[in-house]
Model the fold of this input.
Amino acid sequence: MASLDPVLDKDGVRLTVDDAIATVTLTNPAKRNAQSPALWRALAEAGRLLPGSVRVVVLRAEGKSFSAGLDRQAFTPEGFEGEPSFIDLARGGDAELDATIAEYQEAFTWWRRSDIVSIAAVQGHAIGAGFQLALACDLRVVADDVQFAMRETSLGLVPDLTGTHPLVGLVGYARALEICATGRFVQAEEAVSTGLANVAVPPAELDGAVRDLTAALLAAPRDAVIETKALLQGAGERTYEEQRVAERAAQARRLRDLAGIGE
Done:
């Protein structure tokens, strides 16, 4: 397959688009795709640059590790060049600190937009921010060498890049607390059995498994997928009766659309 010209290629992030499929690649394998504020801004920009034709977004990483998490340079007094150090941020006011973290979180929020389905292809280490980035996606296909871990607590911090909500939703409160508080590794078999991953395959088969899943997602009509995703996303916040109402409303829209009858 011919290579595609990147829509975005900077700060460890590359975005390519092939009609209905966008691929976001972490491109700093020498540092195990460690994350920084610049990388987070590039990820957020990638989300803003998606054309309307895109239905599936694949998140992948070069090298043996998906992402080793936050670049430890963030904790040094000098921090990253051109960026305030985390120490400097801690010395600032509450409003400034809150706004900065909110900006960082934007890299992790757009993956669950209702108009796309996002798939994380995860191999090797996915630690801390790397784990949370994988959790930001709708689906996860993992290599059987995957090692998820939430290490923020061991550093005296908390997971703050939107990972706690999907983690609890996938594995439940008790297991989520144990995973975060101990910082232990979650490997492929447990990831699949607990719902963290949809499927685990040998590393050499990871790309093929993602292609197969992407093709299956694209086989269904786009509007039906969008409506179904919205129904499922809201199910946890609705009562059983409210979900029944939402199902009826969504189905009415689909039937009218299929019949060519406007609302």
Notes: Residues 44 and 107 are 4 Å apart (CA to CA). The longest strand covers residues 13-18. The beta strands are 8-10, 13-18, 21-26, 56-61, 117-122, 125-127, 139-143, 147-149, 186-187, 199-201.
